[in-house]
Amino acid sequence: MECSASTKTRGRPREFDPEEALASALRVFWKHGYEGASMAELTEAMGITKPSLYACFGNKEALFKKALDLYERDKLCYIKTSLDAPTAREVANRILRGAVKTHCGDSDPQGCMGVISSVACTTEAESIRKEVVARRASSEAAVVERFERAKAEGDLPENVDAKALAQCLLTVLQGLSVKAQVGAERKDLDAVVDTFLTMWPGR
Amino acid sequence: MECSASTKTRGRPREFDPEEALASALRVFWKHGYEGASMAELTEAMGITKPSLYACFGNKEALFKKALDLYERDKLCYIKTSLDAPTAREVANRILRGAVKTHCGDSDPQGCMGVISSVACTTEAESIRKEVVARRASSEAAVVERFERAKAEGDLPENVDAKALAQCLLTVLQGLSVKAQVGAERKDLDAVVDTFLTMWPGR
DNA sequence: AGCATTCCATACCGAGTGGTACATAGTGAT
DNA sequence: ATCACTATGTACCACTCGGTATGGAATGCT
């Protein structure tokens, strides 16, 4: 049991690729959130049966967390790389453009999996919400830190509150993902980003 | 059947107040969204049994739409009244402050019922999502119109795109409601609004 | 070949879902 | 008092939920 990349093959070999299956599961969770994704839809998308899923991934919650890992590694990586931009404005630009591209593309589900899963939670699945919120907090902290550096480097005026500005940026980010999920057109979201960047203080 | 305020009382009189019951239902939908709210929790909160609910409100979907009407009338009215503010900046200020107060108060559930219900929708409840999205679109149109007037009146610089600015404002609005729902502190949201208004173009 | 081990498929579990049939109870009109 | 009418409470429906027991199939080791 427990999916791993070990090479010892005693017993009947597994007939599916756990990574491919996880990628399929990710798309289902992304579309419907944690509670909205049923085991039936998950197994069908993954092309495996329920016992195989449970043997390999544990249970629904463990599967979700592994999917969330994959999501952050593959789809949310643009946030971390954006922090390398030379100015605060360019950081904001890259993050927002990256969000529009990721959440409004037509090859992947619309919207942000984190937002979907944290908003769509009945009380009983609150551990999922806490998981998502905790991960988002760490991203937020990184942006705050980056903007404080930007202030020291003169990218941002002295009077701006780095933490508040970072939270404002991420608020727009989450708003964009909501709009994307309920079917906003990409050009409208691009216009929102244009407008927000026009308002952006400093360079 | 069908709840109404008619005065003819042939047959056994109803033992509950439909308006009170609807208000209780609203709080449940607000907390959990359409699909997250179970009939069991609804009936318990409303203090009535399922047959009474179905006789008076039709079914779950009809009950939700009536709750949504009540929500918009009682809780989202600040958006329409905000449009009467003298300047575009004051319109934005009132809308954002109203949102923080409404979605981050401790007497009502956290977050925006519309966002929760439109984001947390499995494919089968898509009619609910469309309903919510359509209502939001009409609000958005009103804000766009108000900002175009503001441009004509000189509140906003000539180079700003009224529609994009309105969408940007509502993007922040939805971002705020997401943050409120997952437990952001009110002072942080106030700081976001402060920052956004500092960036606001024109008067 | 025989064995231990692992995976797959079917069929099932108890609990919860939205929704309803039915008998009973309370009302106004006749 | 009887009737038509409506609300209520119980008990139930078919269905789906996440999760699992079980038997057989496929492998490596001895």
From TrEMBL, chains A, B:
Q: Which Pfam families match?
A: TetR_C_13, TetR_N
InterPro entries, sorted: Homeodomain-like_sf (IPR009057), HTH_TetR (IPR001647), Tet_transcr_reg_TetR-rel_C_sf (IPR036271), TetR_C (IPR011075)
Give the Gene Ontology MF terms in alphabetical order.
DNA binding
Q: Which PROSITE patterns match?
A: HTH_TETR_2
All copies of domain HTH tetR-type, residue ranges: 15-75
Provide the alphabetized UniProt keywords. Answer: DNA-binding, Transcription, Transcription regulation
Q: Which residues bind DNA?
A: 38-57
Q: What is this protein called?
A: Transcriptional regulator, TetR family
